[in-house]
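Minutes, project check-in

Agenda point 3 was the complex the collaborators sent over. CS summarized: three entities, 890 residues total, and the question is how they sit relative to each other. Sequences were read into the notes so everyone works from the same version.
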Amino acid sequence: MSDLVTVENLHKSFGGLQVLRGMSFGVPEGEMRVLLGPNGCGKSTFLKTMIGLHRPSAGQISLAGERIDGLHPHEIARLGVSTKLQVPSVFRELSVYQNIRIAVQRETGRDARSRNMVIDETLDMIGLLTQAGNRAGNLSHGHQQWLEIGMAIASQPRILLLDEPTAGMTPEETQQTAQIVLRLNRQKGMTVIIVEHDMAFVSALDAPILVLNQGSIFFEGTLRQVRTHQGVKEIYFGSRA
Amino acid sequence: MFGLFYQILATFSFLVLSTTGLAIIFGVMNIINFAHASFIMLGAVVTVYLVSAANLSVFLAIPLAALVAAAVGAFLELTLIRRLYNRKLDCLLATWAINIIIVQAVFLWLGTSQPGIDQPFGSFKVGDAAYNYYELFLFGCAALVLVAVFLLFRFTRFGLNVRAAMQNRDMAEGLGTNTTAMYLKTFALGAGLAGLTGALYAPLMPVSPYFGDRFLWRAFTVLIVGGADPLIGPLMSSVALGGVYGGLTWLWDSVAGSIGILLITMIFIRVLPRGFTGLWDILRARK
Amino acid sequence: MRSKFFDLITALNGPQTVGTSPLYWRCFAIACGLLLLYPIIGEDYAVSNNGFLLVWVFLGLSVCILWGYTGIFSFGQTAFFGLAGYVYGVLSINIPPEYSMLAAVCGIALIMLLTAIVGYVIFYGGISSLYIAIFTLMLTLLAETLLSRTSGPQFRIGSALLGGSNGMVGIPPLQIGSGDFVIVFVDKPFFWLVAALLILVFLGLRFLLNSNWGYLMVATREDPLRTQLFGYDIRRIQLITYIIAGGIAALGGVLFASWNNFIAPSSMGMTAATLPIIWVAAGGRASIQAVTISTFTLQWINQQLAYGGGAYSLMFFAILLLCTVMLFPQGIVTTIEMALEEYLERRRVARLEKSPLLGGRL
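CS then shared the predicted structure for the full assembly.
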């Protein structure tokens, strides 16, 4: 069975600094993967390369067998890749409702009725139905993150990329976010790749983990395997001299 | 042949002197200071009045005029500019408004034409054409300004703090730099250099409230083509644009030269938006 | 029929523009009515002059939809305004006056083509926001410099002399028809033409801004990167908006040349490029209504100051710009509008609280 997403031998350098060194993995359709790794391992760079903000120095990324590296960000988005970046970047001046509208109006075009239906459904899924008319900039940090997730999923993407979605959230919000993501994956069959730090979130997701170190995949396994792997501990805490 | 060389030298001096003040403010504070033209004009106006009305030697008047311009700059920074640090476009508009206000104020108070003063040195001939020693003096001044800026940025504590803040303002503040005072000094320095330029060129051109305009847009072209570095930028782009302008003026006329500079700047914006500074960074990274 | 009308009003309403209630639209209709009735009661000179003042609104709207709604700060709109005047002048001088409308349409179309080329260089070339301002400023200076060099009899297109810095004279006014059945758009007919066009453009913009496209304009302004990640090609959004804005500016330029019978490079100079910025900044960037009001008002003030002895007008506008930037970053008219809305909202809530249905005191 071929994967939905394939990353082959991905390299990325900025001038003299090499960030990604031969990263390779695959994600089958409908599955979830968590990308873990210490700071500076290249998680954000990988994500940005995947969505088209960077061009790989070498290697390729494919979606359903078609290469997507080197395409413009909007072209990649149209192929069904939805992203939630680390820094909350909702349209602050617009309302919650209007934010989601922008995410979906390309799909629904002039059909106001189906557009409003999709917007309402999405708001319900992320739990912001009661805040629909509020200015996005006025939302709490956690709610803004949910709004962004909502914007990312509203267009029914094939694959959802989340970059530290629980950054700055309270523990309860983190659990709720995990529930939202699990629902998306299990009920809607969305393929999800998550870059994360927060171990509580990761353990709630209970998905296969890829440990990234110095620009390449160091280890693949379940959370328990990762927790007990000596090599993983070393790259996080440093080995004894 | 000497004519072409002279023309390029003169243009180079003009561009370096016009731009360095602007480039320092842009490089350090990331602000485009449209009031630059009015500082230049103030330098020129103060100089001609000190020389013609107060009978000061022009070599005394010039530094005094520069100080006046620096003072005006410091005042503006204290009252207005510092509220607009994070609003780049608003800062551009505000400095543009300030520029018009100062120019119109001088116009309303002093009228259009101001007293003229003579060039201090004489002229010399090469072949059939006559040239001024004063232009060579200006070249010397331009070179001196570049050296002074280099020394200031490289070897003084102020320069070090400035370079740190240029790279990371929050970090610099965390390490104890008083960036507010630093920005004040930077803006005053930029204004003072602009005033110096106006003062230096007062003996060469008729002085009016609109004196600064011809410097302003050319300074902008040098700034864009040069990029953010206050030293590399004006230096390299003055050489490049000076060559283009001088060459085109010598071949045709000054309007052709102006058009040439505008076109090159527009091409740079499109192709090399970080200017010569960007090119320099790329070359250094490759090594 | 009634539901179609209702649909139309819905399409014209939205978060991007001010005023959505039936009360607002009644006031709007009355204002339009008054506008169209004015020439009947006004005297020739005043009507003609006010018609001329309205022409500037097109330029203001052009800058507004780019800067306020899409986040593109362009100094170039003045250049498109002036160049459109030149193109109309060249065309209308060379062809019989019956076809002046054709000259106008061609002028606008040509300028929109120019806008497309410039816009392509800017947006598909990746020129970033602050540099767009400088790039377009240089473009405007370039246009002014080149056209100022065209004095002398050799600079002519057909029988139209470009005239250098003195400008092109003898531009005929717009007219429809010929011989006995002709309307020449001067004085009162001119006012009607401009007013009608303005109402059409205004409503058209309301429709555009509240449609899907309008949302994309605002999204591009707020967060270009994020917008791209939703699958929108922001370069295309910016380019098409730029062309539309160029068309509106060009329309203004044609009307300007028609009324003035004359166009000069000074209409593209530094001062000329500054004024629209001031109209939009002072009025309120993200409101076509505020900009319409502020443009007309400020140009009227400009005229009054010019009669008094022009030296003070520039100073006035510069001080206005400075005050607006420092004190009213949202624009003066918009601040007033927002205060008015807040006041009306508070009154509405107060009235609700007094309502016995909601448990308030009787």
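Noted in discussion: The mean pLDDT of chain B is 86.
Follow-up: revisit at the next meeting once the mutant set is ready.
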